[in-house]
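Researcher: I'm preparing a figure for a lab meeting and need a structural model of a single chain. I don't have an experimental structure, so a prediction will have to do for now. The sequence is pasted below. Please return the structure as tokens so I can convert it later.
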Amino acid sequence: MYVCKGFKTLYIIELYTMRNVLIVFVVSLLFASCSNADKYKKLETSLDSTSYSLGLLFASKIPQNLEQNNIDSISFQHFIQGIRDYFDSTGTTVLTQEESQKLVQRYIEQIMSSSNKAYASQFLKNETEGNIYLDNNKKNQGVIELQKGLQYQVYYAGWGQLQPDVRDTILVHFKILNTSQKVLFDSRSKSSEPIKLPMDSAITAFKRVLPLVYTGAKLRIFSSHEFAYGTQVTKKDVIEPYQTLLFDIELVKTLKGNYTDTSRDSLYADTVKK
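Model: Understood. Here is the structure written out token by token.
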């Protein structure tokens, strides 16, 4: 982080990003240079006041812009130089706008990549713990292992005649649990109505297991991250990267052919028994 030795105002702003807390040092734009000879000038005219206000408002947007681009620090001298060069009547700049855009984009990509890897690495233990859980779980009675990392257990075989495939839409109630049986999501908590889910947009675990059961079935899927939500990095979700998950599912209805017109459901679907 570069700052001017004689600079009078230094703002330390804590920015909460989706990956980590960044301490961003934003230097005040009240001065045009780092020289001690530069003096603050009074606002004597309307143009002075307007110019000052524009500068202040511009500066106020810098922290937000840095946060959005995952930039944790800037060199004030070179930042100001870039502004000056842009408005220089000679049109002389150290870098062209195209070169500047490429450099900034590359820098942002490097920061995001490093941030993603650092955040995800915190959860690598989830993969190890998940593998141990699945290795032990497949020994339990009634548990069927389709392939390494994907298991299921049927509690009720269902009453219908239809089995969903990737071209269909299903109506389901489901819960997502971690390996400690803690409920992370319950579809019934938002609505008593089943969720309509096109199979082609479902996670891989659903695509592999649900075609094996019939309408009305109640089952549990045990899935490693490869068949669930992978290594996606986000702090907004309760599901962590590399996490092995359990899905308790009730297959309420199967709509053949990805039908979305509910008025025609009865023509193409098994109907829930009263």
